Amino acid sequence: MDTMRITVKHLRGQQFPAVLLLLAAGLGLLLANLPTHDAIAGVLHALIAVPGTGLDLSVEHWVSDGLLAVFFLVVAIELRHELTHGELDSISKAVQPAIAAAGGVLVPIAVYLLIAGSDASTASGWPIPTATDIAFALGVLAMFGRGLPSTVRVFLLALAILDDIIGIVFIAVLFAHDVQWLLLALAVVAVAVFWALSRLLHRHGHPVIAVLMAVVGLIAWGLVAVSGIHATIAGVMLGLVMAPVPAARVRHALEPTVNGLILPLFAFVAAFVVIPALSPSELSPAFWGIAIALPVGKVLGISLLGWVAMRIRPRGAPPALPFADLVAAGTLGGIGFTVSLLLANLAFAGDAGVRDQAILGVLIGSLVSLVLAGVFVSLRAGWYRRTAAATS
To answer: Does 84 score more than 90 pLDDT?
Structure first.
């Protein structure tokens, strides 16, 4: 029992889930390039259908469309909290990270398009380097940032949350296909029923209501999945409308499962790609665009526009961060990982070769950003510790 409590505590933390995510991706990449490839690929490509519905997905799509919707449910709950009671609940709080987030989206897009935009087969990958993996970034910050002021973590959290919002919009708008509007309307009705049930649960707390919510949530997910909108959007919709108290309980209950099972499993499946036997000059422009845009574009965009935001911040806004802290936040922002992997799968769903190279670009770019973040965050944390020691 003590061991189980320790494990759950670790899964609710920041460092252990980040390490677990990295190990899962590394294992997926390793096994994809060993003789184990064909056996595992056969399992991942096996189809599982739900009788009486339009759902007939491969195992890998059940992971990316099904299990990952639970992750987005938890993300949406956190988004709603931060927008109403957290770090983004006022314009004065939100304006600085919003401007920095805009830089962290626009500059990577520009870098990607400069490298891969002239090729029609790779131009559609421009959304991929715009994402920041909030769990990974905060995990690295926790590992290397002892001594950093809390304002850096708050800024990074707000920045990553805004990135998540942008990523969700990209998934919902850019990657919809042959939308079945009637099914989508029925999904919205199911979400409305879910909303009403969550209010009842908030007032009465009866377990039957919780069971009904779970059933309605699954129906909403299924309707979104067959409507032509990516199924993870169902998780976002449900998380945003859930009543605050039940939402907090759901997030607390699901957090260990999301961090310990769902995200590592998705990382394994997404990273299960064969490394192409090509020279660097033969690699797709999509690979280079992503691998460069994540560590370079994110640092430039976040630090430069973050600096501008600090200069024009409104009255009542949080204190300005030093430019060196903005650079450290920019390196953390380059760890795209989870959402970038999903965007890579969506952007190049019709071209497996480019998709696999794009995924490798996400892994390489995120790894380079992780190393840079470790160095920059450690340097800044060391400076703050020395300053505190000198003044004490």
So the answer is: no
Q: Which residue range is the domain that position 242 belongs to? A: 2-175+230-271+284-385
Instruction: Give the residues across from 49 on adjacent strands.
Output: 56
Q: Is 47 domain-assigned?
A: yes
pLDDT digits (tens, 9 = 90+) for 351-381: 988 999 999 999 999 999 999 999 999 999 9
Whole-number average pLDDT of the chain: 89
Q: Please tell me whether residues 209 and 335 are part of one structural domain.
A: no
Q: Are 155 and 329 in contact (CB under 8 A)?
A: yes
Both 118 and 249 in one domain: the answer is yes
Residues 189 and 105 both lie in one domain: no
Strands 47-49 and 56-58: antiparallel
Quote the pLDDT of residue 122. 95
- 315 with 199, same domain: the answer is no
115-123 long-range Cβ contacts below 8 angstroms, 24+ apart: 115/285, 115/288, 115/289, 115/292, 115/293, 116/284, 116/285, 116/286, 116/288, 116/289, 117/289, 118/285, 119/285, 121/351, 121/354, 122/284, 122/285, 122/286, 122/289, 122/354
What single letter denotes the amino acid at residue 309?
A
Tell me the pLDDT tens digit for each residue of 162-173: 888 888 889 888
346 belongs to a structural domain: yes
Cβ neighbour number for residue 322 with a 10 Å cutoff: 15
The pTM for the full model equals 0.86
Residues 169 and 182 in one domain: no
User: What DSSP string runs through 36-53?
Assistant: THHHHHHHHT-EEE-TTS
Number of domains in the chain: 2
Whether the Cβ atoms of residue 289 and residue 111 lie closer than 8 Å to each other: yes
Sequential DSSP letters for 62-103:
IIIIIIHHHHHHHHHHHHHHHHHHSTTSSHHHHHHHHHHHHH
Residues 140 and 211 in one domain: no
